[in-house]
Amino acid sequence: MEWLIRYGGDAEKVPLYDCKTSDRQPGTTNYVIGAAFIVYGVIAELIYILDLMVMVKKQHRRLSCYKIMIVLGMYDMAAISLNSLLTGYFWIKGTNYCVAPTLMFVTGAIALGNRSTIFIVPITKAAHGIPRRSQHEIIVFKDERTYVVLLIPLAYSLYFCFFTSPLLFNSDQTAWFFFTFAPEHDHVMFLNYPHTANNLLIVVVTCLLYVQYSRVLLRHSKVGSGLSWAQKSFFIQCSSICMANLIAALIYVYMQFFPTPSYFVLVGHICWQLGHGKDPFENAI
């Protein structure tokens, strides 16, 4: 995004992002996938609105876990608007980068910032959910300190949004890539290594966190009277969301470097959607 601002808000003036060699014609259209993404996005957004209406009530938002869930909800709703609603529209129109360069650049930068951060917020949520005995661990999430902790993923998001290359949707390739796919452009010049490092780091951190989470819950269930329904539900919810994020992270790294079957790319994108969209459905249940 910083590049776009520097070059006057015109994506084609940004070095490497011109479309001089492109015919600017729409790519592959798929009304079924596009409509399915939009319907999924609308339903998820509506359920999230209902969830947030409950969570923002004073008796709930005073609790740190609800503060985290509210922020997570805001990130999720922003992500769903991009990876489901906007992507569905792009599928219907067959939109590629050179069809709408500046729109694609802006939305891709926002999508990348949101996508990079959304791995951290569920991990924060899971870390908060681990039974804690240390006074220091409790202090971290006490009162308004939770918002301070949540500034970390916000800063992380802004870094990816403003200072790394954006994601660009390509209907011919089934998902969002960093490459413009314009003729005579070299895809190596568009690789986003911070994104790759972020995704691989999240894979490692997620696995380590949930191994520890499982151990603590198992020990807690043996010492006490067993796990409550809420604890079991919380664990299943966090695990399923992070599993979807983990699969999406791995596929999105792989497909940037190697030729990938379109159905496999689509699975990665759907996992990205589920990583944001499962939460409101599970909260509603």
From TrEMBL:
Per its record, how is this protein called by name? 7TM GPCR serpentine receptor class x (Srx) domain-containing protein
Task: Give the Pfam families listed for this entry.
Answer: 7TM_GPCR_Srt
Q: Which SUPFAM superfamilies match?
A: Family A G protein-coupled receptor-like (SSF81321)
Q: Which InterPro entries match?
A: 7TM_GPCR_serpentine_rcpt_Srt
Superkingdom to which the source organism belongs = Eukaryota
- Give the keywords, sorted: Membrane, Transmembrane, Transmembrane helix
Q: Where are the transmembrane segments?
A: 31-56, 68-92, 104-126, 147-169, 196-213, 234-255
